[in-house]
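REQUEST FORM: STRUCTURE PREDICTION
Request ID: SP-0412
Submitted by: Lab K.M.
Chain count: 1
Length (residues): 300
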Amino acid sequence: QMSNSSSLKEFLLLAFADTRELQLLHFSLSLGIYLAALLGNGLIITAVTCDHRLHTPMYFFLLNLSILDLGSISTTVPKSMANSLWDTRAISYLGCAAQVFLLLFLLSAECSLLTVMAYDRFIAICKPLHYGALTGGKACVKMAAAAWGSGFLYAVLHTANTFSIPLCQGNVVEQFFCELPQILKLFCSDAYLREVGVIVVSACLGFGCFIFIVLSYMQIFTVVLRIPSEQGRHKAFSMCLPHLSVVSLFVSTGIFAYLKPPSISSPVLDPVVAVLYVVVPPTLNPLIYSLRNKELKEAL
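STATUS: Completed
RESULT:
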């Protein structure tokens, strides 16, 4: 038991398996998933960068999404794989703080970016004549920069807040990476209010983004359903469907991870839920975007 954070040198993460065979199986599965995420997102980044036909606001935002996805899966999975391979559970104090910071940064930036992407679809479908003026070159870059910047500020605030509190409950993190709610459980009793604060702020930000996206799509669908030709309706829907799928995946896994009642929290369930929101979206997003997208397929 460590009484304060200044003397704490490392945290112990949750091990996925205790026998060598299972550790190696976990390593192999994680490696497969990680390589799939690297390949999928890497291909999208390359295609959008190299093909001038894809130099449009929609693909610019998709490029940003792929970079965020690559970042978020690289923050958690490689460390977990290394721990399985070397049969250890340790992560340094600074390494843990870095994981908390990067995950908060990348996930909150992704939330903001998905909101910006909804706005982009809204302009494209509801105000097509103004599309060039409202989302042209600089406006695009500004919106993406705002998403990244807001994520950065949010992460700095929470990480500084979290790691300034003394720890009383040891150094064992019940998760395969340094997840904020799990770290907060190790703090002294008065940290409970901070935990509530963190969750309230996160929920408000997430809820704000979600409401904006829902309102955008309500207007989009109102306009789409008025399109007389079936082909036009189909084209408009296929423009929105990938983004809507990605948002649903991101929101549903995030809500379940952070707002599930403590009564169903368990050492078995928590890592599974974490995999859902940290590993699944970055791996599936490239697939979701490229399956129905002719331009992207041609570029690839």
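NOTES: The domain at 10-299 is CATH 1.20.1070.10 (Rhopdopsin 7-helix transmembrane proteins).
Reviewed by: T.R.
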